């Protein structure tokens, strides 16, 4: 299995400066999803 890509979210304020987006993921539904998230964290 390979991770082919990932999405990032960038939220900016009215001045174009980075701002928290408060996007959160729900808990992984299974072991495969948990492993994929752990692998993605290594990329970031």
TrEMBL record:
Please, which domain of life does this record's source organism belong to? Bacteria
Its protein name is: Uncharacterized protein
């Amino acid at each position: 299995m390979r991770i082919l890509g990932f999405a990032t979210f960038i939220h900016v304020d009215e001045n174009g400066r980075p701002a928290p987006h408060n996007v959160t993921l729900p808990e992984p539904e299974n072991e495969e999803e948990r492993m994929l998230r752990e692998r993605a964290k290594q990329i970031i």
